[in-house]
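2024-03-11 09:14:02 DEBUG pipeline.ingest accepted 1 chain
2024-03-11 09:14:02 DEBUG pipeline.ingest length=359
2024-03-11 09:14:03 DEBUG pipeline.predict start
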Amino acid sequence: MAEIRIQGARKEFGKVVAVKDVDLRIQQGEFVVLLGPSGCGKTTLLRCIAGLEQLDGGRIYFGERDVTDLPVRQRRISMVFQSYAVFPHMTVFENIAFGLRMQRRPDAEIQRRARSAAELLHIEDLLERYPAQLSGGQRQRVAVARAIAYDADVLLMDEPLSNLDALLRLEMRAELKRLLGALKTTVVYVTHDQVEALSLGDRIAVMRSGEILQVDAPLIVYDRPTAHFVGSFIGNPPMNFLPAQAVDGGAAARVEDTLIPLPGPIADALRRAGVSDLWLGIRAENIEPLTEALPGALPGRLLVAEPLGSHTLLTVQVGQAAIKVNAHPDAAFGADQPVWLRLNADKLRALDRASGRAI
């Protein structure tokens, strides 16, 4: 295992800056997820850590070792790719043992490590089969087993579950969490799937346009996003953002014609920042839909109700905003019905509308 320190990492492809002066510190044994939409620079940053791309600026350290200019083979990394990348002419055992053979490890150690990795991934009964005889999930398990058998300092994973169907992805996600939690390996995991990020990582680094916008524990990123983009990208549905004006020195916010009292910490932050044009952010589960008007509740009109089993997802028009609300599955709401929304004040998040950053 190794701590990873990334200092001012920059990678350019012609005029395109794919990674913009990124600083990131990953503790030994930590599982960090690089999350963001396609083209945000997450895979490029992973490839820079691996040595598959050379930095145009900045340094990368594994522990006290400066690996910035080291070739891949000297970095002691294992990597699992989006494609299964298993050798079709080798058995499962030989695929798992491949890295160890390249290191010229003793045969007894190869046998021990390869079989131990197979047991961890529950594929010990498949060691004599060839990849063509395996399902997609089994082939991905072989790729993961090969990576952990290598006993590298750092494990890098580039969207390893994206080629699996939904049910297999759910199963493999749980397996990976169990496995990597037991191994305590330093892991950097790239995905655009927020569910994977929230369920797997010790911390999530949310990226956009080559920059890291927020690095925090999953529940902090979900509950207290530091930028409008983070809140709008994380969560299903994403965080609602209502345009508002701070009034009474930040003690309340005006949304359309409704005054919403703000918690003391938000009011204090607004006074210090001197900001009046706000986004009020709130999650769907922190809004109570009502069928009658109450003081402080936002009036709206129901656009659509989507029964989802555990709850019903409502889309409510409030002014120019379409607000997502989680309702009880037995709640009876009809299209075009007037609805009032009571916001949980303790779960409100205030952001500067000009910068999109949390206040």
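2024-03-11 09:14:41 DEBUG pipeline.report The mean pLDDT is 92.
2024-03-11 09:14:41 DEBUG pipeline.predict end
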